[in-house]
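@channel sequence for tomorrow's demo:
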Amino acid sequence: MSETAVRDAFHNQALFCDRSGTPLTAAVVRAIEAALDRSTETGRRTLDWPGDARGAADSVPLRLAGGMHALARSGADVGLTRLYAGDLTGAEAVVADALRRFDAELLPWLDSPPQTNETGRAGPIMAGLLTLAAEHGLPFELIELGASAGLNLNLDRFGYRLGDAVAGDPASPVQLAPDWEGASPPAAAVRVAARCAVDQAPIRIADPAQRERLIAYCWADQPVRMARLEAALALAARHPPALEQGDAAGFTEGRLAEPQAEGVCRLLYHTVFWTYLPPDKQARIRAALARAGRAATADRPLAWLRYELNGEGGVAELHLQSWPGGAERHLATGHPHGSRVKWYG
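C-alpha cells (generated this afternoon):
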C-alpha cells in the first residue's frame, strides 16, 4: 500500500469519527497521521503497511488510537492524560511527542486489528433473534464467530428497546436503545439453550492486561459506550462466556457437523468480522452452512445472522439467511456500532 493511501486511511477514519460525534478520537487520529514519519519503527511500519490500512480492512488508524488511549489511561504521559481528559489544546504536539517517546510501547498495537467487542451491535442481532423466535418459537443454540472477549455471547442477558419492542432483561446493567427508524421487530420470547464462541486471538477478561487492552479500543469521548462496556465486562465476570481460541472456518465446520438437538434453532452469527476474514475461509464457512442447511428441518432449523460493513463508508447491514429453504433477507441497515438502526424486517 502506498504511503499516500495509508495517510488517506487516517484521514477517512478521522472523518468517520467526526460524523460519529467523537472529536477527541478524531483529533488523535489526525495527530497521529500528521506526526507519522520514518524516524520511529512505529512510523516506518505504518507508512509501509503491506495490506489495506483502511477501517473496513486492517483498521491501522484505530490500532494506533487504541495504543494512545492505553498510554493515556496508564498515566505514562501527562500530556496524553490531559488530552484524553478533554483538553485538545496542542493535540498534534502531544501525540507527536508520544509517538517518539513511546515507540516500543506503541509498536505491538500494530500486530492485530482492534477488538472492541462492541456491545451496541447486540441491538441489531437481538432484532434478528426476535424475528427468528417469532417464526420458529424455539430456543437457540448460539454460535458466535470473531467474538473477541465473548461479551455479546451474553446478549440475552442485556436489556433492549428496539423501536417499540422491548426485549431481554429490564434489570440488566447493559441497556441498549439505539436510534430506531422504521417498524419494530416482532414481540417474541428469546430463549437460549446453548452458546459457544470462537476468536483467533480471544481476549481473556480475567487477565487485567487484556481487559485493559479491550477498554483502550473503546473511544474515550463516548462515555455511554465506555460505561456499557464496563457493565458488560462485569456481567461476563458473573456469566463467563464459553469462548475458544481457534480458526473461525474450522470451528464453524466442526460445530455445524455436530448433531443438532431437536426443537432448537441453531444460529451462527457475527458482527463486523467478515471483512477481516480471508476469502478462502469465507468460502469454507459458506460451504459448511450450505451442507448443514441441506439437513435442516422445521424441528432443527439453521440460521445465519450477520451485521457487517457494506463497503459504503461506515454503514453496516443486518442480513439473515435461514434453512430449510436458504432464503435470505436484508433486515436492517445501521451504524457499525449499532447506535442507529433502520429496520426493514
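heads up for whoever presents: The first strand starts at residue 140 and ends at 145.
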